[in-house]
Specification:
With about 280 residues, this protein is α+β, with helices and mostly antiparallel strands. About 15% of the residues lie in helices and about 30% in strands.
Length: about 280
């Protein structure tokens, strides 16, 4: 009934396309399928519903992949409200000797990045009791731990000393930016930590160069690259270390694509104003 345009060189493609479907009745299902050059990567089915703003599982996919969808009945003015961009998450353990079951990236001095959630541990136990939109997952950002904010070292102390934590979790979004570099002598316009760590590359500062010029051309602030954002991939290729990403960028020339990880704002005004935050608004 409908085919989107192709989205190339993106590990997490976003189409942002709308289509009106007629003749869809309560005894029918809609089928969504994702394809690449080699064939079908997975399918998802959706029963008739008045509206939806959430995730559906891709069946028959090799990974536990999800498809984000918005569905609106033609008689309704708006889509249903999206999942929260900020929420509280609680977990507890029996003693301080028990590990929480997640790996945190502390490169940013004001917020923690969830680099991995283990299949076992207090975090996993809490996840299993919650709906998908309130589960803690990779690339979530922690802006407070037990109301402690401001410094990641102080937040990490809460994890060490407490047996119960209440986390203020902020969801993230991915933005894809195409840049062109004439030579290795052309400044990228980004400053990175002197000793990067983790699997993503923190952007510590924006300076004159390619990124600065891109930001001037891009009027939508949600699509701009800012200090505190992270680089997840270069030309669709991730790395096991942040140093690996920095090495990819050091000698890259020509046209290349960056996958940028950004924190979604909590206020509804900022969400509505940014194209990158489409999933969290109606």
């Amino acid at each position: 009934m409908f085919r989107t345009r192709a989205v190339r060189n993106m590990l997490d493609p976003v189409w942002r396309e709308q289509q009106e479907i007629t003749g869809f009745s309560s005894n029918q299902q809609l089928e969504f399928s994702i394809h690449d050059n080699d064939g079908c990567l997975g399918k998802a089915t959706l029963d008739w519903c008045r509206g939806l703003n959430g995730e559906v599982c891709l069946q028959d996919s090799e990974a536990q992949a999800m498809l984000r969808l918005k569905v609106r009945h033609p008689m309704d003015m708006d889509y249903p409200m999206g999942p929260p961009s900020e929420f509280k998450f609680r977990a507890q353990r029996d003693s301080k000797d028990i590990k929480w079951g997640m790996r945190l990236d502390t490169q940013n001095t004001t917020r923690l990045l969830v680099d991995r959630v283990e299949e076992t541990g207090p975090i996993s136990i809490s996840n299993n009791e919650l709906l998908l939109e309130h589960r803690l997952k990779k690339n979530d950002l922690l802006v407070a731990v037990n109301d402690v904010t401001g410094e990641t070292s102080a937040m990490m102390t809460e994890f060490v000393e407490k047996t119960e934590v209440t986390l203020t979790v902020r969801r993230s979004v991915e933005v894809f930016v195409d840049l062109e570099r004439e030579s290795v002598n052309t400044s990228l316009g980004m400053v990175f930590p002197s000793k990067p760590k983790g699997t993503s590359l923190l952007i510590a500062e924006i300076v004159p160069g390619l990124v600065h010029d891109y930001n001037l051309r891009q009027k939508d602030e949600s699509l701009q690259i800012q200090a505190g954002d992270r680089i997840l991939a270069v030309n669709g290729e991730e790395s096991s270390t942040s140093e690996g990403l920095m090495n990819k960028l050091s000698d890259i020339t020509g046209t290349f694509r960056l996958t940028i990880h950004k924190m979604a704002p909590a206020s509804s005004e900022e969400l509505v104003g940014g194209k990158a935050y489409w999933y969290y608004v109606n």
